[in-house]
């Protein structure tokens, strides 16, 4: 079934499906709001992303049904001899589609996009409370090589 999986840069019409995927996990279910129509903040955030080069939401679909997504951002830097890095966030696979290698194909797509953007590394953060995600990322070849810190400023 996953042979038909196609990735593309999301458009505003994909936002309800993206939020549907984000809300499926334990943390997203407390942070996201899926209503019809969607809250305006999602469209405003999407428009801000679209206006920033190198910041895209990527969706994967099978037969026009969105089954996975992630945010892909290219960060240009001075460190590492002026290299760029790719940051991915909001990685989700539809809970009804897990175990079908969709996540592995999603990671391969992210790596291909990073290579196409001449990034020297791909990075992400994941909440400490997501051990299944940690196992998935390690199985996909990522290493937990750094410690990340955040502060909630809301």
Automatic annotation (TrEMBL):
Record keyword Acyltransferase present: yes
Residues of the N-acetyltransferase domain: 17-154
SUPFAM superfamilies xref list: Acyl-CoA N-acyltransferases (Nat)
A molecular-function term among this protein's GO annotations: acyltransferase activity, transferring groups other than amino-acyl groups
InterPro entries for the chain: Acyl_CoA_acyltransferase, Bact_Acetyltransf, GNAT_dom
Keywords, ordered alphabetically: Acyltransferase, Transferase
Protein name: GNAT family N-acetyltransferase
């Amino acid at each position: 079934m996953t042979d038909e999986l196609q990735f593309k840069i999301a458009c505003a019409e994909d936002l309800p499906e993206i939020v549907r995927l984000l809300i499926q996990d334990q943390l997203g279910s407390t942070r996201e709001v899926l209503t019809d129509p969607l809250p305006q903040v999602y469209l405003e955030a999407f428009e801000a992303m679209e206006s920033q080069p190198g910041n895209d939401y990527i969706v994967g679909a099978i037969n026009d049904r969105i089954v996975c997504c992630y945010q892909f951002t290219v960060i240009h830097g001075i460190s590492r001899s002026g290299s760029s890095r790719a940051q991915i966030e909001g990685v989700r696979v539809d809970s009804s589609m897990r175990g079908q290698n969709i996540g592995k194909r999603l990671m391969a797509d992210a790596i291909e996009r990073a290579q196409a953007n001449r990034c020297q590394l791909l990075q992400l953060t994941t909440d400490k409370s997501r051990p299944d995600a940690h196992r998935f990322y390690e199985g996909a070849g990522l290493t937990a090589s750094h410690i990340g810190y955040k502060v909630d400023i809301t």
